[in-house]
């Protein structure tokens, strides 16, 4: 897991404003649902391990997975998904008045968002993501079901590349 974390760190140094939101997509799809791994657009009858609503996965991830769940309820997770994640991914900017900031001297070192002022603290978000990755790596070493989901996800990625 440290190799993955180091590679991720290099990617995040290049453009931290991405907030790692899509870099963690593969982890979230198997961790939050246990088994999901393949996004299918416009399909009503999903097969095993398929999903077609990333919004639900993001909300579930941010509101139920530590350390993010200490900062996000479902409403704030939806706001983040809609205005930060989708804004950055689809329009190269945040929406709805949301802003991304490094760290303000007056804000605690662990706060990820300021809901009232619509601010995401980039560096703290990334620290929380690293905490999640470390925890995920520890679980991955101990939980066979999670190992199977992880392998299935990366097998799928390799198949798609070829």
Describe this structure in words.
By secondary structure, the protein is mostly helical. It has one domain. The chain contains 6 helices and 5 strands; from the N terminus they run H-H-E-E-H-H-E-E-E-H-H. The chain has helices at 2-14, 25-31, 54-64, 74-91, 122-142, 144-161, and strands spanning 38-39, 50-51, 99-101, 113-114, 119-121. Strands 3-5-4 form a 3-stranded mixed β-sheet. A hairpin with a 4-residue loop joins strand 4 (113-114) and strand 5. The longest helix is centred in the last third of the chain and has 21 residues, at 122-142. The model is unreliable at 10-19 (pLDDT under 50).
Order of helices and strands: HHEEHHEEEHH
- Low-pLDDT parts are 10-19
Overall, the morphology is globular
Helix and strand content put the structural class at mainly alpha
**N-to-C terminal Cα separation, in Å?**
24 Å
Question: How large is the count of helical segments?
Answer: 6
Strand content: 5-15%
Mean pLDDT: 75
């Amino acid at each position: 897991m440290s190799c993955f974390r180091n590679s991720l760190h290099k990617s995040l140094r290049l453009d931290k404003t991405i907030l790692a939101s899509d870099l963690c997509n593969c982890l979230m799809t198997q961790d939050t649902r246990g088994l999901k791994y393949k996004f299918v657009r416009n399909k009503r009858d999903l097969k095993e391990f398929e999903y077609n609503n990333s919004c639900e996965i993001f909300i579930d991830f941010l509101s139920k997975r530590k350390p993010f769940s200490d900062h996000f309820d479902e409403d704030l997770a939806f706001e983040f998904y809609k205005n930060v994640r989708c804004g950055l991914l689809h329009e190269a900017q945040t929406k709805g008045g949301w802003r991304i900031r490094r760290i303000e001297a007056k804000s605690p070192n662990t706060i990820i968002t300021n809901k009232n002022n619509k601010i995401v603290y980039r560096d703290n978000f990334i620290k929380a993501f690293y905490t999640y990755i470390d925890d995920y790596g520890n679980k991955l070493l101990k939980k066979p079901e999670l190992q199977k989901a992880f392998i299935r996800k990366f097998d799928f990625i390799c198949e798609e590349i070829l």
